[in-house]
Recover the amino acids of this structure.
């Protein structure tokens, strides 16, 4: 029984990370696109599309971080010192973004400052998440069951490339969200931005897909050895198909929902590639989910509470999105 409890917890963390990336990704993307809006009225409309959702979206980040600490304490103890600096940068970005969200509506004279804080905080948080992802893919040095590297081991060209890729990817999510949730000039500009953002995302996905097997032999072996190559080959093929459908839907002004769904699908496909490349290693390339897991009794106790709370979180998340469905017209809002 013990071996699959760790797998269940790995699945819970995987769901939490995926939900966070998608749900908080589009509102971080709106912050990244903030400087490209022409007027304050457009920025108001953009911000109002995520006003009911943005803080609830971060619930999944708390679940992911808390779950990692509780269920895989060894992994937490190794990964946190390895990524102290980008994690701090991410948290500072989220703090500035959150504070700016609340104070921008009240600060008439300081609105430009809060606009900058909202955009910069969103971009910083997105970039830091991408750097953490890239550093995790390239591997973490472990000695005697503890982090054995330096504080700047994460700072590599590959990690910074992943940081830029996540910023662009979140911006694509934000642009397609605005196409679905707004009208007028905001929706028109969002569609225009989404076209070049999709092209940039495709380029970044291509570069990362080539870089990882060339730089990391363990990933090359995972993807290109037989029969793995046959089993995993649908992932890049489906990714190319989804990218094509997304591009065609952006060219059709009648399509408002499909581009957002395609952008989500691209993220899920990229996420599946990450899982394929690294599973079952939670601390690549040395420690697996079983080697870093807490005692089975602790995992079972925590899992009982999590399985009770997870449907509640999914339920209220779905209810809020259903309640505030529809478009935010110019001049409308929740403030």
């Amino acid at each position: 029984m013990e071996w699959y409890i760790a797998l269940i917890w790995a699945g819970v963390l995987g769901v939490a990370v995926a939900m966070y990336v998608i749900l908080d990704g589009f509102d971080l993307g709106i912050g990244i696109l903030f400087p490209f809006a022409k007027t304050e009225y457009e920025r108001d409309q953009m911000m109002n599309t995520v006003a009911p959702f943005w803080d609830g979206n971060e619930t999944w980040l708390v679940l992911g971080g808390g779950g990692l600490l509780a269920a895989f304490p060894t992994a937490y103890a190794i990964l946190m010192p390895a990524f102290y600096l980008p994690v701090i940068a991410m948290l500072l970005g989220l703090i500035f973004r959150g504070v700016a969200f609340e104070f921008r509506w009240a600060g008439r004279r300081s609105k430009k400052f809060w606009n900058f804080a909202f955009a910069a905080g969103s971009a910083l948080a997105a970039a830091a998440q991408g750097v953490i992802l890239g550093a995790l893919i390239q591997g973490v040095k472990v000695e005697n069951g503890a982090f054995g590297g330096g504080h700047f081991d994460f700072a590599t060209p590959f990690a910074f490339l992943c940081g830029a890729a996540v910023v662009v990817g979140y911006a694509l999510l934000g642009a397609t969200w605005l196409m679905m949730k707004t009208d007028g000039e905001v929706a028109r500009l969002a569609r225009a931005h989404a076209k070049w953002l999709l092209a940039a995302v495709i380029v970044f996905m291509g570069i990362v897909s080539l870089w990882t097997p060339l730089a990391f032999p363990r990933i090359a072996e995972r993807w290109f050895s037989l029969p793995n190559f046959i089993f995993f080959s649908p992932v890049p093929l489906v990714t190319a198909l989804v990218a094509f459908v997304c591009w065609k839907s952006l060219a059709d002004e009648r399509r408002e929902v499909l581009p957002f769904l395609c952008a989500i699908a691209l993220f899920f496909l990229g996420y599946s590639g990450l899982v394929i490349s690294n599973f079952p290693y939670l601390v690549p390339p040395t420690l697996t989910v079983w080697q870093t897991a807490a005692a089975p009794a602790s995992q079972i106790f925590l899992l009982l509470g999590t399985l009770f709370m997870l449907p509640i979180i999914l339920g209220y998340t779905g209810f809020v999105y259903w309640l505030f469905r529809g478009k935010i017209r110019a001049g409308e809002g929740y403030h």
In short: The CA atoms of residues 134 and 158 lie 6 Å apart. The chain has a mean pLDDT of 89. The chain is about 75% helix and 5% strand.
